[in-house]
Amino acid sequence: MMFQGKAIKVSMDDTNIATVTLDLEGESVNKFNGLALKELSEVVAMLKTTDDLQGVVFASAKNVFVVGADITEFMSWFKLEDEDLTDKLREAHHIFKEISNLCCPTVAAINGIALGGGFELCLACDYRVMADSAKIGLPETQLGIYPGWGGTVRLPRLIGADNACEWICGGAQKRSEEALKDGAVDAVVPVEKVQESARHLIQQVQDGKLSYRSRRDVLRAPMQFSPIEKMMVFESVRGVVGAKAGKHYPAPMAAIKTMEKGISQDMDKAAETEIKGFVKLAKGTVAKSLVTLFLSDQVIKKTAGKYAKDATPVKQAAVLGAGIMGGGVAYQSASKGTPIIMKDIRPEALELGLSEANKLFNGQIERGRLTADKALKAMNGITPALSYGEFGHVDLVVEAVVENVKVKKAVLAETEQYITDTTILASNTSTISITELAKDLKRPENFCGMHFFNPVHRMPLVEVIRGAKTSDAAVAKTVSYAQAMGKTPIVVNDCPGFLVNRVLFPYFAGFSLMMKEGADFQQVDKTMEKFGWPMGPAYLLDVVGIDTAYHADRVMAEGYPDRMKHEGVNAVDRLYELERFGQKNSKGFYMYEPDRKGKPKKLFDPEINDILASTVDTKTELSDDDIIARMMIPLCIETARCLEENIVSSAAEADMGLIYGIGFPPYLGGALHYLDQMGLQAFCQLADNYSHLGKLYEPTARMREMATNNETYYGE
């Protein structure tokens, strides 16, 4: 053994080919933390002075190559002064430059995931061999930065500027066939053949069939573009990326600017261009928000893992209610390998549920994500039923019937008679108290909430709600099932609306107050969409369903009368009276008609202002800043209340719930991170400007205390 560290080992065979094996101690994956970078620097220095070195293979002892930089350590880099961060980046660049300058051919043997800094190591090598099951990519723009260890310099030279812009700005993980087609790797082989193939490439160099030196000369030189060619490539890319990224996410456009400049420079100068742009992004608020979200996502997945580790897996599930939601739950369960019984009392409802699931499977086939055989096999995992005949073999039942407390109680009590003493009952209620629903059950310890979001197949979040008598075992099994379905579960305590809807309805209440003052809902929608929401509040209410919102609003008003109860008829009440239920019946705030793909297309209804005129008390002109403040203040205060009342156990879980559940703008990092960025003192002052609007706009005593003490929700 030439070198044996805690992250890297180096061995030499009898043909003088060195194998650098990445194997970070105490971790299930390889990542570049300070220790790994230090050892890599030492290894490269050693290889530079090794006599008669014929080749170097970079490999991994784990089932991934390198997942990237250690983000927890990387966050500390962002806090450095500009000069110190620049020095850190130069040190990493120097290591990879030294690899690219070794006196022999170098090959990356990519056996599994190679992302970020892990793929930048591969790019520093002369050749790359990739397992057919592996994935590679540079996902840094998803964290508000761009590749900072040579990715923007080497990738355009390797695969072309246009492809590199797509890889880096999109941040996607690339499969082996696409990587080979674009020229990012030289060979794709089965995983067990990766190192053998890497050695074969070195042998081809030794036999004179390949020249690593000429390849280096080409990749080190500035790229040759005429001014018109350069303009055509980058203007085209800028238009596409700019429209997709939007103004709130600067990293993709900054990456384009860096690559456009760097391709005309030599490698050293291009590296300095990359470093300068990286430092600017790393100091921005968007990078801080998106990295915080990444770390928060790790926290909630780790928390869910702790809940689920002792749970027995759900081998057979059932869903009660076969509408769009029931069909979505059935599809999601069956598509991830857990067979499910879909029960309803009406044959036509079962047909609707099966049709919904079938439509989703067909969509997967059309996109090339499933073969017809696999889709048919998964579809066969859904068993329609009009009775409880097979419920004695079910591990977990999801109740997804109408959002009515009496109906739900009756269905749950009936179901309990047909299941075993260990079967978990879970209600897909969006607002109704789990403790209340459990009152008539014989085994309330086996009952909890399992709140899916619509559409089930797209929305990643599942709220698992603990009632007053819910057992740890029930929570654990439900969390385990949510994970098996490919969802991100967050465990919350019981209250009307739980976490997401409890926070969402003050946001809607702020909107309703503006509507009573004669606000133009289209202006409100456009303002909030420009602010970063995927849709404005009127459009969102149409998507949720005006009828659903109306009934949920009654539950929330009863639960929190001091701030969520309203006098008189508001806009939602009026639309409900007229049975304008939104997208589900093609008229709400907007009108809807199918587009060419059959999806509802939003249109302005010229009658809507007359319809809502009776709900307007005054006519007030509102600026965009007023609209944003009046929408965001109630949402942020309610999120803080949920944390204070232990409805949710951490700021990370609260913020990820809003990101995943209602599309809170990710560039802001979640409601509590947004408060930290603004500063609670500034927020409380802003809220006080709207105190005349009532309790919705009144910060809690704890928020004011934190403001006085300069405390934050995330700490340092």
From TrEMBL:
Its EC number is 4.2.1.17. Pathway: Lipid metabolism; fatty acid beta-oxidation. Residues 497-592 form the 3-hydroxyacyl-CoA dehydrogenase C-terminal domain. It holds the Pfam family ECH_1. GO terms for molecular function: 3-hydroxybutyryl-CoA epimerase activity; delta(3)-delta(2)-enoyl-CoA isomerase activity; enoyl-CoA hydratase activity; long-chain (3S)-3-hydroxyacyl-CoA dehydrogenase (NAD+) activity; NAD+ binding. It is an enzyme of class 4 (lyase). PANTHER family: TRIFUNCTIONAL ENZYME SUBUNIT ALPHA (PTHR43612), TRIFUNCTIONAL ENZYME SUBUNIT ALPHA, MITOCHONDRIAL (PTHR43612:SF3). This is enoyl-CoA hydratase. The lineage of its organism: Bacteria, Pseudomonadati, Pseudomonadota, Gammaproteobacteria, Oceanospirillales.
